[in-house]
Batch of 4 targets.
Target 1
Amino acid sequence: RSQPSQTLTCNIGDVTQAVDVSWKDSAGAAVTDGAGGYTITKGSVVGNVQESTLTIAADTLKALDTASALTWKCAAKSTLYADSEISTFSDVVVTFLTYAVEAKHSEVLKDSQATISCVVSGLTKQLDTVAWEKSDGSAVTAGEGADSYKIAVGTYEAASNTQTTILTVPYNNGHHPPQHLIQGPVPQAVPNDVEILLTPPSTPTSVPRSVPSIKKRLLFIRHAEAYHNSLYASGLKNNALKVRDPQLTPVGHNQVQNLRNEVNNIVKKGFRPELILVSPLQGHKQTATGGFFDQAVKLEACSLITELCDAQCNEGMPVSQLKRIWHYVNFLQTPEVWWPEYESRDELYSRVRTFKKWVKYRPEQNIVIVSHGGFLYALLRLYFANCEAKLIEWDIL
């Protein structure tokens, strides 16, 4: 009970004029307005219903045993006739909830964004706002940029009387993210001298014996917000993992419009994309086609840049179905079923190394890669927010 008092309500129906209202406390004794920590409001008639309230002061509540439900009672008596009888007392049953805030701790991944969550329990309705403090005691101010704090108020869960609120802390503030919020695996150290033994799950460009040292310019983009991201941010992790081939949310489509403007500015500064390599998932193709709407660039599906395949949200449609929808995307090097039944983290790292070796022999110098947060982190050791773009000079040797 964090509030200084609690208010009970008694609705009297089928009345045209205000009636007198009597209350009894949880012990069955008559309640007097202004005595014993009680305040009675008679109320007025609105739509043939009169709403009377009984306010109980905090000190009165503290003296009660609230381990189980308690019952107050209310009754009505007509004011039109002095000799009219009082109605039967009706029960107002009160269940007391313990209001508390519990921090949820997670393992964190160094050198990236962090999220912190708190579960507020003992609620009876949605919290409209929440406030966070930093470790130094100063207030957290939320913003829109990638380098700003973000606060998700959360949604009230009636079944548990709880609401989970999430604070996202950017890495430049010196914090690190929970491991489970990085989309995909936690990258591990990969020796630089390990030779690639696997081949891509397609027919890659043939690899010459030697190649001159040259730098490529690669524009890396994480897909815009899709429905599994939205569910995850709302605390519905299990539901998020079951969304197969997730498409973009309305927020995601707005992000793509912003990406379109950003891409146009990057092009004006001299980056001329020759090829877009895009993950076969729907949300990625929506991100790529919308973001590069003003550019004449060929699109090629690439199953090497997909997320760790350990959940349904990272699986999609067979190529034969994708071709009917995305007829202008090149699927020639993408297998019919391009996702494995299951993929380990070691297999993901092998795929990352395969991609690095494969892409450097592509004839294009300016390449766009629309991929996933986990894959991009495993490849670059950089965190990407939804629809974030990073232009990187890539020394292929």
Target 2
Amino acid sequence: NDYYGGDCASLNLDQIWQHFQEPNKPSDKFGQSRQYNIDLIPKFLMASGQLVKILLHTDVTRYLEFKSVEGSYVLKDKKINKVPATEQEALATSLLGMFEKKRFRDFLMFVKDYDVNNSKTWHKIQPDMPSSDLMDKFKLDGGVADVVGHSLALYRDESWLKEPASTTISKIMLYFDSLSHYGKSPYLYPIYGLGDLPQAFARLSAVYGGTYMLSKPVLGFTYDDSGRVTGVKSDDGVAKCKTVVGDPSYFTDKVKQVGSVGRCIAILDHPLVDTNNAESCQIILPQNQINRRFDIYISCVSFAHNVAPKGKYICLVSSTMETGDPKVDLAAGVKLLEPTLHKFYSVSPLFEPVNDHQKEGIHISKSYDATSHFQTVCEDVVRLYKEITGETDVSYIFVPKKKEDEQ
């Protein structure tokens, strides 16, 4: 590529037109191409999530600027509502009925007081009990359970009901803690889009003697007699190395496909309906609410994050594919965007590594999933870091470095 980043690069209007092989050129109604930074796979960061902690640990944040996302919303009973995350919001929201509000408020208060190390806070909810028992305890069922599992705990399917109650509670607490930083939503997004992340790491790498090459083809790899990687082939020779880290596109013979993700990038000239005219937001459509096996995720950013001209919004609708047609799989989400100025549909395979990384010295990431946040990506980053270093306890990467450690 001639730009920073791979699958989740940020492209200007002309680049994204070329990327999707659109006919002709974008019309004047869109504004100037250079004012766009359209992420191919936009994802939000949890304010207190692992990725933010890793960025602080590496000190790459010196090259980055973030801004909070204005709102987090969920579909319930065919209506879009703000996700209630405080006791006050639980009582005021139109998302819940009168009796549901009190039960949900009691649940939120229980979660905030819960301490896995203090049995006095458990109230008969053992840490290893399934999350379904947690829902039964507070009589949270149907759509309310969907809000808890998919919008607060950010689970991707109904298997969460079998997860330990303590795991679900800790995920909800992460949402609460992230929300407490800014108050509107728990999410952050970089000014100028996600393309600034790899660019920032390239700048930090240069400080420590690293090299970053754009528009450089990877033509293959060299190995020693034992099958361990020794170099990366390019058009002007071989770059010697002991370890290679890359995404699945470089290692088609070392990965397996586990599904596909459908995506629709849309350019709008209006905010999304029922989001209080938010200039940025996330909407989750839980599977049970749209008669699907997988959730649909909608992310929206705009001129407020310097990714589009004034008055323009960039939205992404994504979900794990159930049919062969993304227009069918994403229909429930796309209709919430209309009318749109332009739409780009795509289907990407989901790959996971199957190689012997210890023998080969090749470490392969998983493909980006359909979620609109970085939680699952960060889990994969931690997996790779453990593989590469051989360490089992890497908790230190979530702790910001002290200034004296950098000297």
Target 3
Amino acid sequence: MDEFSDEDLLSQDNTTTSVINDSRTSFADSKSRPRLLTRAEILDAYEEKLEFKDDKEMVIENVSRVGLAKFARHACKQSIDSALNTVAWKTLGYLNDENGLKEVPDNPEILFSSASDILKSGIEKLDMDCPLFNQVLNGGMKCGTVTEITGESGSGKSQVCLHAASVQAVQGNPVIFLQTESSFPLSRLSQIILERSETEEEINETMNRIFIKKIQSYSHMLSVLNKDIEALIKDRGVKLLIIDSITAIIRGDKDIEDVGERTEILHSVGSKLQVLCNKYKISVVVVNQVSSAIDYPGHTYGRKVIPSLGPMWTTFINTRLFVSKTDFKVSKE
């Protein structure tokens, strides 16, 4: 039998006590340490936050790695990256909500189009049924783009919108018309359609292709663009979206407190319009008002007014039409 001194026994007791304490500490740490969130839990919670708090969709334009990391503090980097990738794939249309990822391409080239393919496919244009407009627009309004119509009060901006809506409806293309100013000029629309229709049945069919909604505020506009409008575009095959006007909901809304908030709202609206253009290949027409060009540092082309909303807004439009009154008259020969 081995013999131990009192010092050896004391050393063994201290070692045993230390092991027990270390085990208790490890157990306590495991109980207090929060469980790491999974990808699915991050996505579900963040989607609920976007929908109910921010009134936004769960698309890549509204999600960032920094935002996810701040929101899901108890999540590892791998889960954050996986969640972000899932949102990106979903935005591109490769995610099935029920069955998870579906037909995700192995070759990244499938996500791009070659210059040759684009040239062969061409760009669809909407005929304006007006030689002057078609000439200025190089054949018509391009699908997949945003066209701004601006000019002084009474220059005919709304008239152009009514003309475009009626012409497309007569041609069989459904139209969405978001009205922000006063009441919708239904009688004028009916008059334009009547001039292009031969029977009462044709008039009714044409009127049924134009979907009108009154917009009350910028928050209402964002709600319609983010929630309601896509279902109608997909269901009816809408080719033209008109907003008359974007300026009214920015200038006339008293809830907008400062320039920073206005910039954020314009960015949200402009980004969503570009998403709709690219996703559904529709043409978007937006009416903008004008402001005085006093002390304006840029080129005004001899005009005393410039389009409103500032230079940041121009990043979201592809074509700008400046309309004005003249003494010229257009008539059929």
Target 4
Amino acid sequence: MGQGTSQLDKHQEALRLLTPSENLKLEEISASMAQKNGGKAITNSAFQKYVGRVLEEPFASRLFKAIAMLDGEQATSEITKDKLAIGVVHMVKGTSEYRSYFMLRLATDNKSATTDDLIHLIQCLILALEKIFKQKHQHEYWSSLSHAMSDQRLAHFLMQDILTDKENDIPVTNGDSNLTFTEQHLETLLSRSALCIRILDEVFRNCFPIVDVDDSDFFSSIAPLVPHFELGKVLWSRIQSLLDTTSIIFLNNYIPVELRTKWRFVFATAVHGAGFSGLVREITKKGPTVLVLRDKHGHVFGGFASHSWQLHHAFYGDDQSFLFQLKPNISIYHPSGYNTNFMYLNHGQQTMPNGLVSTSRLP
């Protein structure tokens, strides 16, 4: 990653990726952490204190070490402000090569990471996201019912996602759970999971909030990880949501981009009753919907309907619809392509099947 170039040249090259206002914010962050040598050096403890609002230990220390070791250099107890600037720029605006470098260094102190290392890291990144959203009051309505293991379930799903050959829909591990991953492996694996990349980038950009809003990733601005929630006139204290922040991050990643910014409440049995006729009345002609259910065994599952529900004697919809599971495991099931039986809703008919159906491929 750029070996053979002086640190001064690397620093100047990195700063050229920033706007003037981003440069100013980066300088302010560096100055706030600098403690020694006339304000030019930053210690591990000062670094930990600053990023600790997002990352817990040992990940804050590992990130400090990763910056110190950029381009094959030795780990040190202090880093210069210039070295910090280089590291921050590569985190928030760097290439896939740098993204995989930092992910490996966060996952382990060794030269390669195990599957368990990566699962633990992903879980901690999700926890960091929840901390970020809580600070920004972005998820207060999503977490009224907490799933104790939901972060771990999403971490396992994402690990399975990056270890799957999407073209052939087969796992690349062949059942081997004792794999190790180098930086080069991670660069390839991360390319398989857009959600994993989004989570990593979101954490980095909140550790070091220097990116201008107008200059930030366009995709993030139109498709946030957690959508804005419209309560409407519903008394929220009457409802125990089946969706927590982790579930929302997962589901919002798979619905069409244009629907990821804003969600609104439509139906809950606690408000509208458990009758099927009430469900039909509230969900028809409301646009695309996410339907979430919990059975008597505690399993949580549902589906995304890409079109408005409507009473009809035939199937309708398109292949953007899908089914999902949130508990006991997180999974997603896309249409098989064998037919066009995506959505069906009928009620009160004597000669036609009644009920609500959304079909996708199941294992």
